[in-house]
Amino acid sequence: MAAEIERVYLLRALPTPLPRGEVWRIDQGYLPLRSTVNDQDSHSPGAPIAPHQLEGRLRRITHSDGSVEHIHTVKSGI
Questions:
Q1: Is the pLDDT of residue 41 over 70?
Q2: How far is 34 from 3, CA to CA, in rounded Å?
Q3: Strands (E), the chain
Q4: Are 58 and 26 in contact (CB under 8 A)?
Q5: What sign does the CA torsion over 11, 14, 20, 23 have?
Q6: Cα–Cα distance between 35 and 17 in angstroms, integer?
Q7: Are 31 and 56 in contact (CB under 8 A)?
Q8: What does each C-alpha distance from 55 to 29, 30, 31, 38 come to in angstroms?
Q9: Which of 50-54, 55-59, 61-65 has the highest mean pLDDT?
């Protein structure tokens, strides 16, 4: 599984404010990991099973005009 790197910085002062932009409300949740079977030899009885992990993320984005967008992202290992 790929490592995720989070960087944190300490600022000396607040940055110059940005011009006002569009406001979105984002609700986000994650689906649990589950194992899947590798397609290689998956139809042969007694074939070894190579587990792969799938993780899903669900996002609901409410735009400033009231429109709603749903996004389902599936992350998988390489």
A1: no
A2: 19
A3: 25-37, 51-62, 68-76
A4: no
A5: positive
A6: 46
A7: yes
A8: 11, 7, 6, 16
A9: 61-65
